[in-house]
Amino acid sequence: MIKSVWQLTLALVLSTSAALAEGWSYEGENGPDHWAALSADNAICATGMFQSPFDIVADIDADLAELDIHYGQMPVSVTNNGHTLVVAGGADDHVRIGDTDYRLLQFHFHTPSEYLIDGRSFPMEVHFVHQSEDGRFAVIGAMIDEGPANPAIAQLWNVAPYDHDTTGSGEAVISIRDLLPSNQSYMRFMGSLTTPPCTEGINWHMLMTPITASAEQIAAFRSAFPHNNRPIQPRNGRLVVAER
After folding, report:
1. Domain boundaries in the chain?
2. What are 97-134's pLDDT values in tens digits?
3. Under CATH, what is the fold of the domain 5-15+49-243?
4. What global pTM score does this model have?
5. Burial of 139 from C-beta contacts in 10 A (0-12 / 13-18 / 19+)
6. Alpha helix locations (H) across the chain?
7. Catalytic annotation, residues
8. Which residue of 62, 121, 126, 130 shows the fewest CB atoms closer than 10 Å?
């Protein structure tokens, strides 16, 4: 397990190589340049015009709908799916955007950040994936910069399993809101899933204020996943609206 920041001398022993040899991966013959060829379902990874991630630069400011976030506390449980660490949302966790409720399906992490903001890359990024009752997706993204340790990340890393396709859990309770900045102003744009099948039509809401994790916490994740970010995609003229 990624027990704590005090055990960072562990080598890159995650047994993800077998999982990544099947299906898609972040490098080699099954890497991002080849995702579209791995399955007909992935064709849009190569042909899509609104693929994520890209370099986010705001075009205009506007009065955007508030992100009315309702995340509670939950027992710590983390799954290693061979590509990242994933945490399932609780039954009542959701965000209201305008007049629509989107249930939190899961959140997961990338290193380094997948998106750039004004050309800047961050050490890590977290994505909160939501879906409405009518099937629409809304993703909230938050950059993770190096700084003070994050208490929620500390609890997650304490139980996170090294072996792929396994789940670690503990008795501690995590507050998901600790993974959000206090200032939730955001930039809105259309994009896609950043992993196969690269589905487009995703409403993205990128928070403009990063959260922090300690250098040790970032290194702990990288010891398991040295890099799990899709390369930057063409922006293709899409509009980015920043909250005024």
Report:
1. 5-15+49-243
2. 999 999 999 999 999 999 999 999 999 999 999 999 99
3. Carbonic Anhydrase II (3.10.200)
4. 0.90
5. buried
6. 17-21, 35-38, 44-47, 151-159, 215-224
7. 83
8. 62
